[in-house]
Design brief:
The complex is a heterotrimer of chains A (201), B (420) and C (181). By secondary structure, chain A is α/β, with parallel strands linked by helices. Chain A is built from eight helices and four strands, in the order αααβαβαβαβαα. In chain A, strands 1-2-3-4 form a four-stranded parallel sheet. The radius of gyration of chain A is 18 Å and the shape is globular. Chain A starts with 24 loop residues before the first helix and ends with a helix. In chain A, 40% of the residues are buried. With 420 residues, chain B is α+β, with helices and mostly antiparallel strands. In chain B, 44% of the residues lie in helices and 11% in strands. Chain C has 181 residues and is an alpha/beta fold. About 6% of the residues of chain C have low confidence. In chain C, 12% of the residues lie in helices and 24% in strands. Classes of the chains: A alpha/beta (201), B alpha+beta (420), C alpha/beta (181).
């Protein structure tokens, strides 16, 4: 980006947040384990993955291609994680696959109307195992602020969901947190949601 | 200005299909027609639009659009919420230029209430609205160019888009769906540091626009794919209810900010971008020019706003607006009013009103009917994208499959706005 | 602004700086053609259907929030119940028209309809009315005679009922609170 000489370089927005004193929770307490991390660790111990399974899980997380399933406002925030500032390419996920046959992850971003439920399920069925679903936003997780005749109250009524990301819309960093947690789940050996809950959810 | 003469027949020389204006019917004499479904889940349809396309080789001979895949029941839901709480809903209708939906709703309620809004709120609404217009056009440009193959434009445009969202976050606390406009003014005062950041953005934006035009304007592939494609004449555009950039690209000099000024648009200096070809390239160019003009407007608003520091940002009418929190400790009337406004809601006199503003997509309107109670009786949002999709069949009359993508992108329809 | 020559005109109302022409539903297409050709309202902005079922049944009492404050002489302001004036029929269709010209103007044309009463389509006058009328049919159940393609547009094709009517429930699910269990 061509730098504008007149821009004040000492302004806060030009300095990385870490230098301004803001840290994320992970950096603030590197030794502190949240509830999620503890559960993941205990599952990892319980499941006792072999080296091959660990290798396969590592490979799955390193290029998990999302299917383009942008529905509404959350889709705009999902597009912004592809943009250069939030850059999902560092996770190997910049290749949003329009064909569900080549996609691993379905990020349901937006409110799901009843009319859209059938195409959504069809796209989910066309994805090949292993496949994961992230319900992005309040509308996909639970119907959001719409509790009426036309909005599905949570996409987990029709597809099994691995991660729910709250927000209306969730910040790109929040979606990335959801994706990172999904990666941690997969690395720990947690099976995809359809194996736990059944394909018909 | 190029306007329509009084009273001619609409269909003389028009490309609007008959008998159904929005469905292009394949000529039954053509054999070998393949019906393809551009399903609701498609990377290039800007959301959940379904097009059923009849193809004869590469040419589109039949087209019909199916919508409703994002129908959210906004209007019925808003009848259940009070006027004040209802402000959260309109932003999600046109989720790309969300400030304008909030603005039109709030302006309509204030028109029913005949409430005077302080000038600081008016100027801030203008500034944030124009930033929302820039945001919307950046999303349009990034995705439209992406679909035609100019993939790097996506990253360029979204880089600037993040700057706009940073400004929204600075002012309102959240990037999208800010809910910063309220009946009576603004939710909060403008924070310290906003003016510097906004001015840095206004300096940056024209340079960015020069970069975009440098990439696209003389690019042979871009010109080949957008010039002469999807032509919509002025008469057809008006007959099909187009407003906004789609109408201005067809040669009609119609901008509500100039013709029916609202907020303080008659006190700022800006030009209206009009082009006369009516094709995809002209719609792209109109939007880029509009971004330049919006940056000018924002800079002028910032100049005026800096003089108004310390002024009130919301109306003082305690029957509508919540009292300041410090007063709740000392004044009984404030406590009662706070309680009544939050639980029951303020009452708006009975009547019906329509307010139309120039949103990024065209004329966005709000028609409100009040029965004198705390909730709307009917809230209808006139969606410019709904009208824009009426023109798909007329624009695609002799298009190829590849042009279809360009045309649908150039009409800039947001499905939340279409389906409501 | 004289609209007396509009065919079928029943009443003209002015409120909030807007002109509303109430027109006989049997002559709506004529009236719209007259407005498009003689008065040059060349752009149909919107067609809105409103359902007034239940209007004037719940009394409206208490404070009126107006910029001018309460009128102490107004009985409603004292807390007495006051009912908004009743409407002639159940449904209304409002056509918002715009003249795109140097002498721009806006007008609203309104017709009053009963449940099931059909009204003539204005698609021959403004082609953009196609989808607006389909939406009014889908959401409110107002039939349009002569419409080339009157099918559901926002709801599924086999949906029953017209969602925006006042006697159609809002739907949705009851929200369960964890303490309630």
């Amino acid at each position: 980006m061509a730098l504008d000489e007149t821009v004040d370089q000492t302004r806060v927005s030009q300095r990385p947040l870490a230098k301004a004193g803001l840290q994320s929770e992970r950096l603030l307490w590197p030794a502190k384990k949240g509830v999620f991390e503890e559960e993941v660790e205990s599952m990892e111990d319980a499941l006792g993955l072999t080296t091959l399974e660990k290798a396969v899980a590592w490979a799955q997380t390193r290029s998990m291609w999302p299917a383009t399933f942008g529905l509404a406002c959350c889709a705009i925030e999902m597009m912004s994680i592809v943009s250069s500032r939030y850059d999902i390419a560092r996770f190997g996920m910049e290749r949003f696959s329009s064909s569900p046959r080549q996609a691993d992850l379905m990020i349901v971003s937006g409110r799901v109307a009843h009319k859209m439920a059938a195409p959504l399920r069809q796209v989910y069925d066309q994805m090949l195992e292993p496949k994961w679903v992230i319900a992005m936003g309040a509308c996909a997780s639970s119907g959001g602020m719409f509790n009426n005749y036309t909005i599905l109250q949570g996409v987990d009524k029709i597809v099994p969901v691995d991660i729910h990301v709250p927000g209306c819309p969730p910040r790109p960093e929040a979606l990335m947190e959801g994706i990172v947690r999904l990666h941690e789940k997969v690395l720990a050996g947690v099976p995809p949601a359809y194996q736990i809950r059944g394909v018909a959810s | 200005m190029a306007t329509v003469e009084r009273g001619p027949a609409i269909y003389a020389g028009s490309r609007i299909p008959q008998p159904v204006p929005t469905i292009l019917k394949a000529d039954p004499a053509i054999e070998d027609v393949l019906t393809v479904n551009f399903g609701p889940n498609h990377p290039s349809t800007h959301g959940v639009l379904r097009l059923i396309v009849d193809l004869h080789g590469e040419h589109v001979v039949g087209l019909s659009a199916v919508i409703g895949y994002l129908h959210t029941g906004f209007e019925k839901t808003m009848e259940q919420k009070t006027w004040w709480k209802g402000v959260t809903y309109p932003a999600r209708i046109d989720y790309v230029s969300f400030q304008y939906n909030e603005l039109v709703y709030v302006l309509a309620v204030e028109k029913l209430l005949q409430l005077e809004v302080p000038r600081k709120a008016t100027w801030t609404r203008m500034a944030l609205g124009e930033l929302a217009r820039i945001h919307s056009h950046l999303v349009y440009l990034g995705t439209a160019a992406l679909e035609l193959g100019a993939i790097s434009m996506f990253w360029y445009c979204f880089r600037e888009r993040d700057l706009v969202l940073d400004l929204f976050e600075l002012v309102a606390g959240t990037r999208m769906h800010t809910r910063y406009f309220q009946v009576g003014g603004l939710a909060e005062d403008i924070p310290v540091g906003f003016y510097d950041e906004a001015r840095a953005f206004c300096r940056r934006m024209p340079q960015a626009l020069d970069e975009y035009e440098g990439i696209l304007n003389s690019n042979a592939i871009w010109l080949e794919r957008t010039r002469g494609v999807g032509v919509l004449s002025a008469a057809d555009a008006i007959a099909l209810g187009q407003t906004g950039p789609n109408l201005r690209a067809s040669g009609v000099d119609w901008d509500l900010r100039r013709r029916e000024p609202y907020l303080a648009y008659d006190e700022v200096d800006f030009d209206v971008a009009v082009r006369f070809g009516g094709d995809v390239f002209d719609r792209y160019k109109v939007r880029v020019d509009e971004m330049r003009e919006s940056t000018r407007i924002v800079a002028q608003c910032l100049d005026r706003l800096e003089e108004m520091q310390g002024e009130p940002w919301i109306a003082d009418d305690r029957k509508v607006v919540l009292p300041p929190r410090e007063e709740l400790h000392t004044s009984m009337e404030s406590l009662i009013h706070h309680f009544k406004i939050v639980t029951e809601g303020f009452r708006v006199p009975a009547g019906e009103v329509y307010v139309g503003i120039e949103s990024a997509r065209g004329e966005s309107g709000c028609y409100l009917v009040s029965d004198g109670g705390p909730r709307p009786w009917r809230a209808k949002f006139r969606a410019p994208s709904f009208a824009a999709l009426h023109a798909t069949a007329a624009c695609c009359a002799d298009a190829a499959v590849a042009d279809l993508i360009a045309i649908v992108g150039s009409l800039d329809a947001v499905m939340g706005d279409v389906d409501r | 602004m004289g609209y007396e020559s509009v065919p079928g005109l029943v009443e003209t109302r002015e409120a909030f700086g807007e002109t509303t022409l109430v027109v006989d539903p049997a002559r709506i297409a004529e009236a719209c053609l007259h407005l498009r050709d003689e008065e040059a309202f060349n752009l149909l902005v919107d067609i809105t259907a409103t359902d007034y079922l239940g209007w004037a049944e719940a009394g409206v009492a208490g404070y009126y929030a107006t910029a001018a404050g309460r009128d102490l002489n107004d009985p409603a302001a004292q807390g007495y119940a006051r009912v908004p004036e009743p409407k002639p029929k159940r449904f209304t269709l409002s056509y918002h028209l715009l003249r795109v010209a140097d002498d721009s103007a806006r007008v609203r044309v309104q017709v009053w309809l009963d449940d099931g009463e059909a009204v003539e389509t204005v698609v021959p006058v403004w082609p953009t009315a196609d989808w607006h009328e389909r939406e009014a049919w889908d959401m409110m159940g107002i039939p349009f005679t002569g419409h080339p393609n009157l099918t559901r547009i926002l709801m599924e094709d086999d949906w029953e009922g017209h969602p925006l009517r006042k006697d159609y429930p809002i739907g949705g699910e009851p929200v369960r609170f964890s303490e309630a269990e």
